[in-house]
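Summary for the lay section of the report: proteins are chains of building blocks that fold into shapes. Here we show the chain for Solute carrier family 25 member 45 isoform X1 and then a coded description of the shape we predicted for it.
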Amino acid sequence: MRHEQYSHFLAGCFGGACGVLVGHPLDTIKTWQQASNSNVFTATKQIYVRNNGIKGFYRGMFFPFVTTGAINSILFGVYGNHMRQLRRVCHSDYQREQLEYKHMFLAGSIAGFVQSFIACPIELVKVRLQTQFYYNEYVMGQRRTPFNTFKRILKSDGISGIYRGLLPMMCRDVFPYGIYMLAYRHTTKFLDSTPFVQQRREGRKKDESQVDLIVTTLAGAWAGILSWVCVIPFDVVKTIMQAEENRQYRSTRHCLVVNFRRYGMRSLFRGSWMLVVRAIPVNAATFLGYEYALEWGQKYRDFYM
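The coded shape description reads as follows.
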């Protein structure tokens, strides 16, 4: 039982690290677009020129590489444990089957809510590092590090400062993560029922991995796209609020209204194409890492216990 409680946390940590490794350059372009209200070409050129080459696309990667593992550990861990608890309260297999999708959405939403409080300070530091050469090229007079950035925010704005952008982030993460988990499981179930996948499974040896690369990749990519398309304006507002240091926006609503009046409706969907493109490899890699890690953990448990 204890192994089941911790396996989702460890698998989520590994999956999150895989996602960052694949998607950070695209995330940097998306963040720069949203912060500067520029198109893909302009953002890519500015990142390359102002950071003296290709390394600009990987700026601030080490911090999210380490911390996103922790965020996804909480996300998948809370999701997996809540699913187990929700299944346990069902009185029969029939009731469990009927409520399965509702439980997935509820468990995913709860996981999204919990991880928001951990992810917000981490994303704040990541955004500041990614956009430092747009907003604050010579403010500090030295190269910024995650620790120095975090310390500067805490010193100037206090505890509330490290949770800047929390509300739009919760709008982006809570219910969409319910959709995320639901879409992934529903898609894997649909793909597993197709003749092509069934034939692949029949030809697979018992000692081979039971994780289907094609199914997991397609389901992860689709879940990422579906969960993101509805919440792009919230992600834009979150990025704008976290990127600027002057605190010119009093609230989420104020930021939304000011940018709408200044740049129009289009600005609230800035970076949407890059966000969707990024969602495909990132979420495919995240779920592949998650599923493989769960399987490896199960094999380890069966071997030593």
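Put simply, here is one thing we learned. The radius of gyration is 20 Å.
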